[in-house]
Amino acid sequence: MKKELLPAEKRLPDNNGFFGRFGGSFVQPELQKQMDEIAHAYHTICRSHNFVQDLRNIRKHFQGRPTPVYYCKNLTEKVGGARIYLKREDLNHTGAHKLNHCMGEGLLAKYLGKKKLIAETGAGQHGVALATAGAYFGIPVEIHMGEVDIQKEYPNVMRMKVLGAKVVSVTRGDKTLKEAVDSAFESYLEDPVNSIYCIGSVLGPHPFPLLVREFQRVIGIEAREQFFEMTGEMPDNICACVGGGSNAAGFFHAFIDDPVEIYGVEPLGRGTKLGEHACSLAYGTEGIMHGFNSIMLKDAGGNPAPVYSAASGLDYPSVGPEHAYWHEIGREKAVQINDDEAVTAFFQLSRLEGIIPALESAHAVAFATKLAKERPTESILVNLSGRGDKDLDFVMEKFGKYAEREY
To answer: Same CATH fold, 64-96+217-404 and 31-60+98-209?
Structure first.
């Protein structure tokens, strides 16, 4: 039975960073002091009039917000089902939702007097966004990225370097997002006083899941108002891709008390076998990784399992603790889309609407087209979290045959 949701003014996390039993901060004492400093900064600096006004000015005049909600007339007619709408985060400056929290984190670092921004990146969008924030605020940036992802997302690597960031290639383990997080954390621990770790999703020890969600809430706040203005009602269904889940957390949060069906779309990759997907909510169990308790994919020894997705931003073996909580209480339904379905949606949206989505976002579009056929009288609002420029070389190399199909 679905548990009763807390009213907005009492919404989680609690003072210790827990969403139910998920979340918290599981780090060594010295690092906990820095986490406490950042948490205090959020509750004081980030809620101050000056900080809020500065961030709103950045959102409007630098990022180009609000991003629009767009009705996909051609896709809707082709699918022959529910009306499909997109929240166009691909039109946010730098081409994805990531700048929403990176500008917030950069502004916070400036207020705290930090001298270095450190982060991980998978698909490279977080890295580009933080490099952009570093250039804007005049703070040096160091980005850790798995060697595999560097090869897949090379255009974003070049963008980071052009923006002045130092890109560290991570060659350990599977050489993807998990290892990049490990490497970035290690670099941060070398000097946590003068640097700040700007995590790229609603992950990590408290207060990062809260901090990133709050900076990303602008997506859902805008989308809710825009959709109602367009249609006179709330959407029947909303969906977004979920790896760590930053775009989805910011999007879902505004609708959490509304009579709206919420779907978190996970990457099924090549199949259900461990190592062939990154569907933490569907196949994971409770565990602690990177300083927080959530649902994670584990190997036989109980360690984080290898994961895979064609979308580099989704191949992480855990999920944000708030997503784990929403899933547990039945508020967020976990659904899965494989590589074939995502790439098909990538080309279908491109051909029918003139919008090239990120492979991550294409997972959500693919699910929307499936759901539309099941709910022909309803509406679906998709968070299109990013654009696909970064994926073009990889898609054409690995999935070039899809370009020859009719859509």
So the answer is: yes
Q: Which of 258, 223, 269 is closest to 384 using CA atoms?
A: 223
pLDDT band at 123 (very low <50, low <70, confident <90, very high): confident
In this prediction, residues 146-157 reach a mean pLDDT of: 92
Which among 43, 61, 97, 253 is annotated as catalytic? 97
Place of tokens 């205090």: 40
Active site residue 72: yes
Conformation bin of residue 288: beta by default, left when phi > 0, alpha when psi is -120 to 50 = beta
Cross-strand partners of 398: none
Active site residue 97: yes
CATH (residue range 31-60+98-209): 3.40.50.1100
3-state helix, strand, coil in the chain (%, to 5): 45, 20, 35
| Residue extents of the structural domains in the chain | 31-60+98-209, 64-96+217-404
pLDDT digit string (tens) for 342-365?
999 999 999 999 999 999 999 999
* Whether residue 3 has pLDDT greater than 60: no
The set of residues, in sequence order, having a beta carbon less than 8 Å from that of 132 and lying 6+ positions away, is 93, 94, 99, 102, 163
Tell me which of 72, 102, 198, 279 is the catalytic residue.
72
What would the two tokens of residue 355 be? 């919008």
Question: What values do phi and psi take at 307, rounded to 5?
Answer: -130, 165
Q: pTM of the prediction?
A: 0.94
One-letter amino acid identity for 240? Answer: A
Task: Report pLDDT for 78.
Answer: 97
Burial state string for 30-40 with b = 16 or more CB within 10 A and e = fewer than 16: ebeebbeebbe
Q: Considering only the top CATH level, what class is 64-96+217-404?
A: alpha beta
- In the predicted structure, residue 6 carries a pLDDT above the cut 80: no
Least reliable range by pLDDT among 166-180, 222-236, 258-272: 166-180
Q: What is the 3 state secondary structure string of 209-270?
A: HHHHHHHHHHHHHHHHHHHHHHHCCCCCEEEEECCCCHHHHHHHHCCCCCCCEEEEEEEEEC
Give yes or no for residue 1 having a pLDDT over 50.
no
Task: Return d(Cα 311, Cα 308) in angstroms, integer.
Answer: 8
At 144 the pLDDT is 97
Let me know if 269 is exposed, middle or buried by CB neighbors in 10 A (0-12, 13-18, 19+). Answer: buried
